[in-house]
Amino acid sequence: MEEGEDPFTGFDVEELVDAMIAVTWWRSLHARPLSRVGANLRYHVAAEDAAVSARIDVTQRLKRRPTVFDKLEREPTMQLTQMWDIGGVRARLPSLRHLQAVSRRLRKTWTIVRTKDYIKEPRSSVTARSITSSGETAA
Predict the structure, then answer these.
(1) Averaged over 32-49, what is the pLDDT?
(2) What residue spans define the domains of the chain?
(3) Average pLDDT in the 113-128 region?
(4) E strands of 34-128, at which residues?
(5) Mean pLDDT in residue range 18-46
(6) CATH number, domain 13-137, options 3.40.140.10, 3.30.460.10, 3.90.226.10, 1.10.238.10
(7) C-alpha span between 36 and 120 (Å, rounded)
(8) Chain-centroid distance, C-alpha 3
(9) pLDDT class for 7, splitting at 50, 70, 90?
(10) Which of residues 93 and 133 earns the better pLDDT score?
(11) d(Cα 132, Cα 128) in Å, to the nearest integer?
(12) Nearest to 50 by CA among 101, 93, 83
């Protein structure tokens, strides 16, 4: 794009506005469940005495709107409602022993959809275990 050129040339502005509203709405639907999952993970980390530097280190994030659009553009067959990584919660734990203890607790109380163990099967600079949950607790 050249300087001074309209970045929306060739796009239907109404469709763009509708898309932004839809993505904002979809993200907002996930904010409260994500917060509950984060609070529940903090509980399990605390129960295993897994603080890092005297702090429970659990963070959460919703995928930003531009990142959602980038992903939908990269994967044109994907529907917004199929985007499973719209949000995430992460815990930093002091040791492998703590990781295993918290993982055991989660398997007992959460509905686990998928687990990727980057410790057993390293990927680039990732040294972690990724546990994908439906956000529901097991009955």
Answers:
(1) 93
(2) 13-137
(3) 74
(4) 57-62, 87-92, 110-117
(5) 91
(6) 3.30.460.10
(7) 29
(8) 36
(9) low
(10) 93
(11) 13
(12) 93
